Amino acid sequence: MISGESGVGKEVVARNLHEQSPRKDKPFIKINCAALPETLLESELFGYEKGAFTGAANYRRGMFELADHGVLMLDEIGDMPLALQSKLLHVLQNGEFSPLGSEKVVKSDAWVIAASNQELEKRMQQKLFREDLYYRLNTIKIHVSPLRDRPEDIPPLIDYFIDRYNRRAAQNQIIKPEEHLIKKMMAHPWPGNVRELQNVIKRYMVLKDWDEIVDGLSGEKKHADAGPVDNSRFDFNTPEGYHTTGPLKENSLPLKEIRKRVAQKVEREIISYVLSQTAWNRTKAVDILQISYKTLLTKIDELNIKPSGAFGPYDPDDI
Q: Measured between alpha carbons, how far is 74 from 31 in angstroms, rounded to an integer?
């Protein structure tokens, strides 16, 4: 029995148990007991004979038969209907069952790993989970702690997911967050556990801004959204990109926004220069800038870059 909150990695634990066991060369079959209605779940677990019900055109083997000599993972076992729990208990005790609509007996030597994000003890008190089934399944119990209780796991998990996604993508590589941001991530409670952390790494592939992602994670509000901003002290048309003359005001532009605008100004100047030097040949430009063609088109649109002089109007489809 593997217990733990949703997203902690119970299936990862189950698959590792399978890979480290003598059954590693046999099937690993998983079924989510919460995802299927009772009648469909029963037919998925035990199979059915031809003609057992409307639509049963052929004999179909169930999960228990497919997992013979292998591993069957019953995920979210706490959501299994009581009537089906009784049949499951019989299979666990005797190692045999009958498919729906059949009188024949099928034997199965499947190692059953059950998992739940619910407290099954409470489910038993509520008469929603059979006590005898609980003790039958609970031979060995493994509890996977929530991520908030093991923050030391966060840095290696960040490294793991970054390496995993970078190996899949030739471009759009993920840069590791800075140390102070990793510390913020370690302090986050992670209600979605490892699954939430994984999605945060994916989010970087879209937003490309660790500061924004981590601030959003902790619920911090951006100062730029706090109210009207006084831009009088910052002129992005100057050669330096900004100036700091004039009186200091509480609602002045925050440093992050200044950095963003200066970066955009620099990007615009560099991309404009490269495009002008290549006579707006975008294929040559992406080679020089070492970015993807799609990224270049996006930058041209976002930064409102237009050709000057003899190059004529900009056509996104023109190469």
A: 5
Q: Which of 53, 58, 64 is nearest to 31 (CA)?
A: 64
- Is 138 found in the same domain as 167? no
* Structural domain harbouring 74: 2-144
Rounded to the nearest 5°, which phi and psi values hold at 72? -115, 120
Same domain membership, residue 186 and residue 89:
no
How far, CA to CA in Å, does 64 sit from each of 2, 73, 172, 206, 257? 19, 10, 43, 42, 58
Question: What separation in angstroms does the CA of 177 have from each of 162, 182, 201?
Answer: 10, 6, 10
Q: Kindly give the confidence (pLDDT) of every residue in the chain, 319 residues in length, as a single tens digit, with 9 standing for 90 and above.
A: 999 999 999 999 999 999 999 999 999 999 999 988 888 899 999 999 887 787 787 888 999 999 999 999 999 999 999 999 999 999 999 999 998 888 889 999 999 999 999 999 999 999 999 999 999 999 999 999 999 999 999 999 999 999 998 988 777 789 999 999 999 999 999 999 999 999 999 888 888 889 889 988 866 444 434 344 444 444 445 544 455 555 555 555 667 677 777 778 888 888 988 888 888 888 888 888 888 888 888 889 888 898 864 444 434 333 3
Total domain count, the chain = 3
| Same domain, yes or no: 234 and 294 | yes
The residue out of 144, 171, 196 marking a domain boundary is 144
Number of H helices, E strands in the chain: 13, 7
Written as six digits, the tokens of 24 are: 């590693």
Contact 53, 99 (CB under 8 A): no
Strand pairing report for 111-116 and 142-143: unpaired
Does residue 318 belong to any structural domain of this protein? Answer: no
Q: In the listed set 87, 121, 144, which residue is the last one of a domain according to the structure?
A: 144
Identify the CATH number of the domain in which residue 180 sits.
Answer: 1.10.8.60
